[in-house]
């Protein structure tokens, strides 16, 4: 009688563990995106009539983020590799960018917010905005300010390119997956102890 009871416990425990593992599998969906981004912009114009001191503006950076999350002036996960204009503050990013199509990324100096440059008072700054960043990236605009060009020194371009090279994409288990796996293992331990005590 005890042997049949233990066998029934093991069968129940196995069925429980299989149910938990099957239900846990589809929930491992959060993914970090890690990319190398290179960009170039040319044909800069100024609303104040000055010639652009640097044309083209070129640079590159690496970025790692979770596209299911919202980032504002984030300096975590982004590293500027190269930039051929001066920058007075740390580089950061916004994702997604408010009042823009979904999947828009903004990169720039964080002094005035990464999604804008400030003319007065001015500082060496830039902002780059690519659309469709995680699907099919395309260049929207690049604005920059260089204080060496004078006080009214804002320059803009809508003519450029952005290239995104994926470095990695790592799936990380959701917290609910860990909870299901833990409860399945806990159930197995309790049933085994119960059967061993019988």
Tell me what the structure shows:
- α1 (2-24) packs antiparallel against α2.
- The radius of gyration is 26 Å and the shape is elongated.
- It is built from 2 helices and 10 strands, in the order αββββββββββα.
- Mean pLDDT is 82; it is low at 24-29.
- The strands form 2 sheets. Strands 3-5-6-7-8-9 form a 6-stranded antiparallel beta sheet, with no helix packed on it. A 4-stranded antiparallel beta sheet has the order 4-2-1-10, with no helix packed on it.
- Helices cover 23% and strands 37% of the residues.
- With 198 residues, the chain is an alpha+beta fold.
- The chain has helices at residues 2-24, 175-197; strands spanning 30-42, 57-65, 71-74, 78-83, 91-95, 106-109, 125-131, 138-145, 154-157, 159-172.
- It folds into 2 domains: 2-27 and 174-197; 30-172, no CATH class.
Helix content percent band: 10-25%
Q: Going across the major beta sheet, what is the strand order?
A: 3-5-6-7-8-9
Shape from CA axes? Answer: elongated
Structure summary, number of beta strands: 10
Q: Helical element count?
A: 2
What is the average per-residue confidence, as pLDDT, rounded to a whole number? 82
Structural class based on helices, strands and sheet pairing: alpha+beta
| Succession of helices and strands | HEEEEEEEEEEH
Strand content: 35-45%
Distance between the termini: 10 Å
The biggest sheet amounts to: 6 strands, antiparallel
Rg, rounded, reads: 26 Å
Provide the low-confidence segments as ranges: 24-29
Number of domains: 2
């Amino acid at each position: 009688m005890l042997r049949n009871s233990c066998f029934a416990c093991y069968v129940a425990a196995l069925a429980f563990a299989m149910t938990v593992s099957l239900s846990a599998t589809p929930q491992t969906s959060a993914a970090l995106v890690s990319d190398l981004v290179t960009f170039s912009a040319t044909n800069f114009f100024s609303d104040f009539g000055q010639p652009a001191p640097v044309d083209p503006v070129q640079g590159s950076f690496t970025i790692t983020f979770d596209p299911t999350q919202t980032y504002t002036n984030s300096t975590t996960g982004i590293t500027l590799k190269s930039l051929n204009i001066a920058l007075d503050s740390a580089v950061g990013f916004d994702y997604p960018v408010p009042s823009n199509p979904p999947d828009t990324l903004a990169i720039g100096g964080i002094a005035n917010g990464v999604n804008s440059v400030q003319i007065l008072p001015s500082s060496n700054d830039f902002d780059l905005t690519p659309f469709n960043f995680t699907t099919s990236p395309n260049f929207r605009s690049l604005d920059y300010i260089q204080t060496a060009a004078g006080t009214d020194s804002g320059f803009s371009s809508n003519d450029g390119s952005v290239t995104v090279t994926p470095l990695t994409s790592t799936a990380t288990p959701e917290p609910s997956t860990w909870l299901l796996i833990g409860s399945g293992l806990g159930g197995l331990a309790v049933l085994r102890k119960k059967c061993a005590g019988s």
